[in-house]
């Protein structure tokens, strides 16, 4: 079945440095990928999404490019802030046998930004 | 802004007891989902529903039942709660279309003792 892999469980950085959170996926259908962010004691919420190959998508200083050739949708930011400390989930819109769509999530990457 | 409300916000249950978690959405969305969150496992789908009076099994349905009595309401039922079901549970809704965003509730922290 479809799956999403996030290789880093924890990323720790100093404020102001760049970050890249990895996301790769497997699907038999044309992919639609999402990044969700969850701050401490809050619900996950959408950060950005894309289905267009090789097109950069941006939101709130974060950006990601879907690369179908490598099945990747890495999340990047050029300069992290303390407020970026959160749990980040990559997700794939997964088609069911009934023709509906349900999201499949990766295990998440916890980003901790230090002063 | 889409609205998904979960109750209770937290609950302590005893092993073997029955637990019901409730979710209500005002988004007019057809799809509703129950996810479980554990450290190191991310968000795992338990049950989902795309129409009232019908539910579908997700990836980890064992030990859980779901009920969708109306478009707005979706419940998760633990008939015999176990220690391993201690987790944070999130309800979410969406239109169910491929590109659509999930809107999550604030979560229910369940502790089974």
Oligomer: heterodimer
Topology, number of strands of chain B: 11
Mind summarizing the main beta sheet of chain A?
Answer: 6 strands, mixed
Largest inter-chain contact set: A-B, 27 and 27 residues
**Which structural category do the helix and sheet elements of chain B fall into?**
mainly beta
Q: Which parts of chain A are unreliable, with pLDDT below 50 for 5 consecutive residues or more? A: none
| Share in β-strands of chain B | over 45%
Topology, number of strands of chain A: 12
Global morphology of chain B: globular
N-to-C order of helices and strands of chain B? EEEEEEEEEEE
Indicate the mean pLDDT of chain A. 93
- The CA-CA distance between the termini of chain B, in Å, is 37 Å
The percent of residues in helical segments of chain A reads under 10%
Low-confidence stretches of chain B: none
Number of helices of chain B: 0
Percentage beta strand of chain A: over 45%
C-alpha Rg of chain B (nearest Å): 13 Å
Q: Output mean pLDDT of chain B.
A: 93
Task: Give the biggest sheet of chain B.
Answer: 7 strands, mixed
Main attributes of the structure:
heterodimer; A: 115 residues; mainly beta; globular; B: 113 residues; four-stranded antiparallel β-sheet; 11 strands
Walk me through the structure.
- The complex is a heterodimer of chains A (115) and B (113).
- In chain A, β7 (56-59) and β8 (62-65) form a beta hairpin.
- Helices cover 0% and strands 50% of the residues of chain A.
- In chain A, the strands form 3 sheets. In chain A, strands 2, 5, 6, 10, 11 and 12 form a 6-stranded mixed sheet that branches.
- Chain A has strands at residues 3-5, 10-14, 19-21, 24-26, 33-38, 45-50, 56-59, 62-65, 75-77, 86-95, 101-105, 109-114.
- Chain A is an all-beta fold and 115 residues long.
- Chain A has no helices and 12 strands.
- With 113 residues, chain B is an all-beta fold.
- Chain B has no helices and 11 strands.
- In chain B, the strands form 2 sheets. In chain B, strands 2, 4, 5, 6, 9, 10 and 11 form a 7-stranded mixed sheet that branches. A 4-stranded antiparallel sheet of chain B has the order 1-3-8-7, with no helix packed on it.
- Chain B starts with a strand and ends with a strand.
- The mean pLDDT of chain B is 93.
- Chain A binds chain B through residues 6, 9, 32, 34, 36, 42-46, 49, 51, 89, 91, 93, 95-96, 98, 100-108, and chain B through 31, 33, 35, 40-45, 48, 50, 56, 58-59, 90, 94, 96-102, 104-107.
């Amino acid at each position: 079945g479809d799956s999403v892999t996030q290789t880093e469980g924890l990323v720790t950085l100093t404020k102001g440095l760049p970050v890249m959170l990895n996301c790769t996926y497997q699907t038999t259908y044309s992919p639609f990928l999402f990044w969700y962010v969850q701050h401490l004691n809050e619900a996950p919420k959408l950060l950005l999404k894309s289905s267009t190959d090789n097109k950069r998508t941006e939101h709130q200083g974060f950006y990601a490019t879907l690369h179908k050739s490598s099945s990747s949708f890495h999340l990047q930011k050029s300069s992290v802030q303390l407020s970026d400390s959160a749990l980040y989930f990559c997700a794939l819109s997964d088609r069911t046998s009934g023709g509906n769509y349900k999201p499949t999530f990766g295990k998440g990457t916890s980003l901790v930004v230090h002063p | 802004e889409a609205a998904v409300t979960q109750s209770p916000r937290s609950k302590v249950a005893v092993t073997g007891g029955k637990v019901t978690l409730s979710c209500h959405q005002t988004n007019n969305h057809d799809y509703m989902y129950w996810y479980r969150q554990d450290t190191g496992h991310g968000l795992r789908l338990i049950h989902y529903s795309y129409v009232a009076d019908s539910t579908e099994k997700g990836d980890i349905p064992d030990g859980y039942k779901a009920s969708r009595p109306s478009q707005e309401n979706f419940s998760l039922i633990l008939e015999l709660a176990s220690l391993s079901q201690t987790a944070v549970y999130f309800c979410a809704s969406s239109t169910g279309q491929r590109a659509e965003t999930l809107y999550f509730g604030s979560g229910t922290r369940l502790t089974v003792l």
